[in-house]
What we know:
With 161 residues, this protein is mainly β. It is built from two helices and eight strands, in the order αβββββββαβ.
Amino acid sequence: MNKPLALSALVTLLWAVSAQATPPQDVPEVTLRHLSTTFVNHGICSIRFGISSEFSGGDAGLVEIQMNFLNPEGQVLHRGTLATYLEDTTAGRYQEEFVEGENICFPAGTRVEITAATATIDDVSYDLIELGKIREDRFKPYQIQIKSGLPPEPSAGKPES
Length: 161
């Protein structure tokens, strides 16, 4: 094969591949939210996360989020990874993932630090942190109470009438 023809074929191939890749500005924003932590059974805890991409932002592809669970002093208690595929459809842009185990029943005040986050779209990996395309949602689940037939207890420090 002659060199000019091979070089021309290589340039054409590289141009075609680069033309099909998603431009970094078009990578959809991804949101991570902690939904709940549940004591499952026999000392095992399950931490549930919601991962979503912006509506009509395009496919986010394979999203991988690496995180550290830190105690209030900043020491790493556990390292975890979430991985899911997010599509640009109503059902496909939201997924739930879990981190589970015996060693993850963390104390109050534990926080999650995202250390790396990527979206792989059409075999190209994008750094979501570098692109500013990942954010956290400080969703706080509601407290659920069961209504009883008993009257409510009086407020502390408030005299009864």
